[in-house]
Amino acid sequence: MILGIGIDIIHLPRLKALLSRTPSSLKKFTSRILTSDESKEFHYTFASILNTHLFFQKKKRWTLKEATYKALYLHNCITWKDVSIKKIKGKPHVTIHTPGNNMTISKTHASVAHDGEYVVAQVMIEGLEKTKLP
Questions:
Q1: What are phi and psi of 118, to 5 degrees?
Q2: pLDDT confidence of 42, banded at 50, 70, 90?
Q3: pTM of the model
Q4: What torsion do the CA atoms of 14, 16, 19, 21 make, to the nearest 10 degrees?
Q5: What is the pLDDT of residues 54-79, one digit of tens each?
Q6: Are 69 and 123 in contact (CB under 8 A)?
Q7: What are the structural domain ranges in the chain?
Q8: DSSP 3-state assignment of 98?
Q9: Euclidean distance between CA atoms 60 and 53, whole angstroms
Q10: CATH H-level superfamily of 2-129
Q11: Fewer beta carbons below 10 Å: N end or C end of the chain?
Q12: Pairing, β 103-115 against β 91-96
């Protein structure tokens, strides 16, 4: 059963401006949304993260997390740190660490695309919603 489908689009210059407002903006942003494993992977300097190639790679992660949140919104309220993103065989893989008591997640599907100044991500989550007793 499909539990939810989420989609997100981001305009990169808007996010880049947000992250470069103050020297602590990037640190606050990453500490709020990344799991501890993702944080270890994300040890780049502020200057290098604004490099175009690295910037695109890391913003895909944010867009996937947002799409996952939207896919599960009606079933369960999750936080950014409940979702982790890894690349497996060149494809994004979404893991939900605490899906909640009202559902069992069996599979996630994720897709990301970017063109120019935009990144779009779509996530579909399969599983079972546990029935509520009267």
A1: -125, 145
A2: low
A3: 0.76
A4: -80
A5: 555 567 788 999 999 999 887 777 88
A6: no
A7: 2-129
A8: coil
A9: 11
A10: 4'-phosphopantetheinyl transferase domain (3.90.470.20)
A11: C
A12: unpaired
